Amino acid sequence: MSKNNELVDDLVAKLKRRQLVGSSTVSQATLKLLIVVISRSNWTTANQLLTLVKSVGQRLIQANPTELAVGNIIRRVLHVIREEFREADSNASSHRNKSTESSHPTSLTTSSSMYNLLGETGSTVNDNVQYPSSLRSNIIQEIREIKDELENIYDNIKNQALLQIHSNEIIMTIGRSKTVEEFLKMAAAKRKFQVLVAETAPSYSGQEMALELSKAGIETTVIPDSAVFAVMSRVNKVILGTHAVLANGGLVAISGTHMMAAAAKHHSIPVVVCTGLYKLSPLYPYDEDSFNVIFNPDSVLGFEEGDLVEKVTVTNPYYDYVSPDFVNLFITNQGGHPPSYLYRLIVENYDPNDHTFDL
Amino acid sequence: MDPKKKTVGFAPEHDVNPSDLPSPGSNNSSSQSSPVSAFTNTPDLSNVNTPSSATSSLSFASTPTSATEPQNISKSQKPYEPMKSSYEEQWGLANKGSSSASHKAHKLASPRDGPGFPKDQQQSGKKDQKAKRSSIVSPTNTSSPIGSAKDVKGPGLGIQALASPSADGAQGAGGPAGGPSAKPSAPSQKSMTKAERRELQERQRVEKAQRKAAGLPASGRAAAQALAQPNSGFSPNPSKSLATSFPGADAEKVIAAAESTSQAKKRERLTKEMGLFAHLDPPKFANTASAPKDLHPAVVNVGLQMAQFKICGANARCVATMSAFRKAIQDYKTPLTTTLSRSMQTYLNPHISYLVSCRPMAVSMGNAIRYLKYEIGKNLDLPDEDARELFLEKIDNFIRDRITMADQVIISLGLQKIQDGDVILTYARSSVVQGLLLAAHEKGIKFRVIVVDSRPRFEGKQLLRALASAGVPCTYALLTAIGHVMREVNKVILGAHSLLSNGALYSRAGTAVVAMSAHERKIPVIVCCETYKFSDRVQLDSFVQNEIGNPDELVNDSNNNYGHSSTRCHDSVHGSSNASNSGVLGGWRESRDLKLLNLLYDLTPSEFVTVVITEVGLIPCTSVPVILREFLPMIQQ
Questions:
Q1: Which of A39, A151, A211, B473 has its CA 20 to 30 A from that of B249?
Q2: CA angle A178, B582, B593 (to 5 degrees)
Q3: What residue numbers bound the domain in which B129 lies?
Q4: Position B316 pLDDT exceeds 90
Q5: For the region Disordered, what residue ranges are annotated (chain A) (predicted)?
Q6: Do B467 and B385 fall into the same domain?
Q7: For chain A, which ranges sit under pLDDT 50?
Q8: Domain closes at, from B177, B202, B218
Q9: Order of strands, edge to edge, in the sheet holding B611-614?
Q10: What is the pLDDT of residue B123?
Q11: CATH number, domain at B446?
């Protein structure tokens, strides 16, 4: 357990210090850690394992609550564990009384929330069953599949690029998102289009994005953030990356996204969000600021302006909350979905018991 | 080196970063020629600025440099005579009608001994001053001032830049970096330390040397340099004509060359304009070379300052233009065969087209000039001196009635709309809004201001500075944070460049986003706009009529100080080790697929604007054509 603790402490520290940021990196690190923890620890019952994973998860989430992907990955793992135990459970019970007809097909209980609503409590796990030794390796196997999914996420998303982008389009984007970058590059291989990138002050990640896209041979124009509204009327699509997707379909994305999405809505320009499913969080934004970070104001008003800094408040929010009304389409690694469908994906990927980590 | 080349160029007395300031160098190789003397009033401006620290509550000038304007306005509220003297104070010194070069040189030198001499120049050391003086005087006294050019350690920009193609490049480059900037208006220079500037110039020099070593063909070299260092003020290419000490002058020249040989493609490559905006003028790099010879120096001055955005903002530009024209009319000598009123139009026309060639005309300027022309046309038969007096008075009255007093009225009307506990959001900087907020604070209203700002000009910082020093509680945020800051706001007050006849608000780029965000949250959007900015133009989008700024402003390298601290932040965010991502876009001209678009204005649809405060009352913005049709003829009587 202590050796696990060391690893957990390490990741916690990295998250706290923001040495690890970005949904993709933190989710991969979390998954790697969980695989080690689960394979090394001693556990015999489902509850033991669930408690173990939850406790690790709690620490990681507290380390940086705005990295929602950490929580998502932990929920995915918990979901996998529950399913594996449930399957083992039903196997065992069906072995014990082969004559009695199984009350329900397992697949139905696990995947259909509607079925659960009608009184079936499939989520409880029986502790008194002797599990086969293959269980541990099965669970690890399942988690590795999540890992594979994470690694192939760009492929799955970018393969849909040609379905969304037609020739001679003008596309607008903001900030730097690896997903969007891959998506556009893929489309550029077959189609010719133009990209406008808002430079995204004060991080100027949009400039980097533009540089990357132009290197890939895409005709890219950098615009200051102020020109977003002015040129929006000629844009065909707004394609956004995001930091996280919330349960209602709202986005937590780099600041400036709200402005762009609202401008797009005013001009009735479709807004497409490219995101891996690991960014989909079952949490709900009760307050717009609940998932925001107020960042170092130095980049907004530097200390070179010392006399001024003294007298004024400088604010530098890192993220924006974008309400789901502004989004027309999510392109995930499982295909395109409207915001109204996200609740379904949440039910499929997470167990309702895991939305909050109560031990 | 050709000594002839060294004699040319006029060393401005304020020292400057070469990347930023137009050295009013002349393209004429004779040092005594009239263009040189025409620029002698450039230093005067900077001198006059300092004593006239903004005493007025109304500041039209959007840059500290043009602090001349506030003074101007405050005086113009008084009766006609005192105002005249204020003009003379500002614009008078150098161009009082004397055309003797040596006389001018005296005038040039004399103000620096006075108390009004800019502070930072005094800091730059007596040695420098001495050197400077020699550099200034030399064109007039010495026939071949090679020595003086070499001696100059200080900001003898014009001379040094031209005199030192490669070997002397280090010295030459070091020169302008030697003292603190005399132009506090340029934030990039101001916040750039000596070391930083030196470093930058060192880099540029190395780059140049490399290019040279690479053996680029002589003819293509200028183009390559223009591509590589669009901001460089130095043109080490001796084969070129000499009026090149302007930022971007190289690029401009190459563009001109490309155009003359009708190589449209080449031009496109240089300016890299976006297809959608191909109909708009490419950004202009004004220089004196393009100025006709017989322009009045005051106008040339204003033109250059506008081109450099030293004077910007609709009011400031209009006031500056009218004041310059006033000066021009005052100094105008009627040709023998005609009368003043009849020849005035033809006299002013090249001035106007020069101003347009410096920067596309502001709507406010257009309206003011139209008014002036109308007055001239109406009084063709007056005797010369009466006509002159009348025109001068008309200009003064225009500034007083349509701008100064209009602003007073707008402010008093606007005060009714500001209450205790308000949180007011404003974007960038408008002189009227600044006046209004300061007046509200003076009145004792307790309110808070959120100043939203954006790249690349960061105009809001000036407003922020003014408000903060007056003691108004302020919050500062960038435009990307608008969604975040808008929630606590209960009023948005914006300035305007122009109001169009369909009710659309034409203003600084970004205004539309702010108005939209406010509208989305049902927050009232109040626009302050004088009626002289109303335009009978109708525009549906921000494309048909707009202005393209210098795209290099978007490159945040150390040349352009704006972004440098942000890169630090960015590194820490991503935990990345790419130590210097400053100037991510530095090589954009080389990259085939990368373009920069620096749009200066945008169009806010009328539905976002709740009310417009004008000097004729609070009106909906769709009433612009009504005002234009019904009231303006009445006001103009």
A1: A211
A2: 55
A3: 3-40+94-218
A4: yes
A5: 88-113
A6: no
A7: 99-112, 119-120, 122-123
A8: B218
A9: A313-314, B474-478, B447-453, B422-427, B491-495, B525-528, B611-614, B617-619
A10: 44
A11: 3.40.50.10470
B439/B393 same-domain check: no
Which pLDDT value is given to residue A5?
Answer: 85
Read off the pLDDT of each residue in B406-415 and give the average, rounded to a whole number. 96
- For chain B positions 466-525, those within 8 Å of chain A (CB to CB) are 468-469, 473-485, 487, 508-510, 512-513, 516-517, 520
SS3 content of chain B, % helix, strand, coil (to 5): 55, 10, 40
**C-beta of residue A153 within 8 angstroms of C-beta of residue A69:** no
Q: What is the pLDDT of residue B33?
A: 38
Q: Using alpha carbons only, what angle is made at residue B478 by residues A199 and B363, rounded to the nearest 5 degrees? A: 85
Helix (H) or strand (E) holding B453: strand B447-453
Q: A154-349 has which CATH code?
A: 3.40.50.10470
Reduced to 3 states (helix: H, G, I; strand: E, B; else coil), residue A174 is: strand
Which residue intervals of chain A bear CATH 3.40.50.10470? 154-349
State whether B390 and B454 are in the same domain. Answer: no
Taking only the tens place, the pLDDT of each residue in B16-42 is: 344 443 444 334 333 333 333 333 333
Task: Search chain B and give the residue with CA nearest A263.
Answer: B513
Q: Is residue B356 part of a domain?
A: yes
B529-548 burial by CB neighbour count: b if 16+ within 10 A, else e?
Answer: bbbbbbbebebebbbebbbb
Q: B608 lies in a domain? A: yes
Instruction: Specify whether B394 is located in the same domain as B445.
Output: no
Mutate to test the interface with A, among B188, B480, B513 (most CBs of A within 10 A): B480
Which residues in chain B are closer than 8 Å to A290, comparing Cβ atoms?
none
The owner of tokens 């603790």 is A5
For residue B619, list its beta bridge partners. Answer: B612
Contact B176, B9 (CB under 8 A): no
Q: CB of B600 within 8 A of CB of A225?
A: no
CA distances from B57 to B3, B65, B435, B442, B466 (A): 50, 17, 6, 10, 10
ipTM: 0.88
> What mean pLDDT comes out for the span B369-373?
91
Question: CB contacts < 8 Å between A and B, how many?
Answer: 225
Q: Are residues B318 and B460 in the same domain?
A: no
Q: Which residues on chain A are in Cβ contact (under 8 Å) with B598?
A: 224, 227
Which of B574, B592, B603 lies at the smallest CB-CB distance from A21?
A: B574
Report if residue B249 sits inside a domain: no
Determine whether the interchain pair B584/A214 forms a contact, defined as Cβ–Cβ distance below 8 Å: no
Structure confidence at residue B202 (pLDDT): 66
Q: How near does any CA of chain B get to the CA of A89, in Å?
A: 44
Q: How confident is the model at residue B581 (pLDDT cuts 50, 70, 90)?
A: very low
| pTM as predicted | 0.72
**Cβ pair B191:A304 closer than 8 A:** yes
pLDDT of residue B195: 61
Chain A residues within an 8 Å CB radius of B539: none
Interchain contact, B478 vs A316, CB within 8 Å: yes
Chain B residue numbers with beta carbons less than 8 Å from the beta carbon of A220 are: 593-595
Within 10 angstroms of residue B162's Cβ, the number of other Cβ atoms is 28
Q: Mean pLDDT highest for which of A86-90, A325-329, B267-271, B311-315?
A: A325-329
Beta carbons of B455 and A225 less than 8 Å apart: yes
Domain with CATH 1.20.120.420 in chain A: 2-151
pLDDT of residue B162: 37
**B575 at A interface, C-beta within 8 A:** yes
Residues B329 and B447 in one domain: no
CATH number at residue B389: 1.20.120
CB contact under 8 A, A262 and B517: yes
Q: What is the pLDDT of residues A283-324, one digit of tens each?
A: 998 888 888 888 888 888 888 887 888 889 999 999 999 999
User: Could you say which residues from 328 to 367 on chain B have a Cβ atom under 8 Å away from some Cβ of chain A?
Assistant: none
**Model pLDDT, residue A196:** 95
CATH code assigned to A2-151: 1.20.120.420
Instruction: Closest CB to B565: pick one of A208, A302, A321.
Output: A302
**B306 shares its domain with B442:** no
CA distance B43 to B37: 12
| Contact with chain A for residue B240, Cβ under 8 A | no
CA distance A11 to chain B (A): 14
Please report, rounded to a whole number, the percentage of residues in chain B having pLDDT higher than 90. 35
**Average pLDDT score over residue span B467-493:** 94
Domain boundary among B218, B233, B264: B218
CB contact under 8 A, B454 and A298: no
| Number of structural domains in chain B | 3
